[in-house]
Amino acid sequence: MNIGNVLFSPNGRIGQQDYWVGILIIIVGNIVGGMIPFLGLIITLGLIYVGVCVYGKRLHDIGKTAWIHGIVWLIQFGLGIVAFVMAGGAVMAALSAGGTEEAGVAAAIAASGSLFLIGGLGFLIWIVYTIWLGVSVGEAGANRFGPPPGAAEPAPAAPAQPSQPAPPQDDNNPTISS
Questions:
Q1: I need a labelling partner for 60 at 20 to 30 A (CA). Which of 41, 50, 71, 139 fits?
Q2: DSSP state of 171
């Protein structure tokens, strides 16, 4: 396994074992990134690219385009917008109802509930998507994304040598016949 290729190259295919190693690195990287204030943000942003490479190559192995990974990101982004709109609506409703301390607490509970519910749905989608890719069997032969993982790359064809004319036959250059 070439870990640099698994994590940083968006081209080709990877098998299930390399995929799970990549996912483990992404998870650990996100945990570590969450513990470090500013550098953690940079690590997390870098892990987005690593995720595109790992998920994309696994999608390639099962014969799918890596753009499917973008669709999952769009769903997650859309769910985030819905969650914040719902939370904002709960807060606005509580504030317009009188603005008392009890209304503020109720608004916070309602907002956190909607954020948790929608956020949990988004997390569940990622878990199912990740497991689906991890257990899917790759295509047996070469596909449009390359040879199967572990297959030897075909050797590049040697350039054709121009045929040389046979030397003229004379007494100084006899031809050996069999």
A1: 41
A2: T
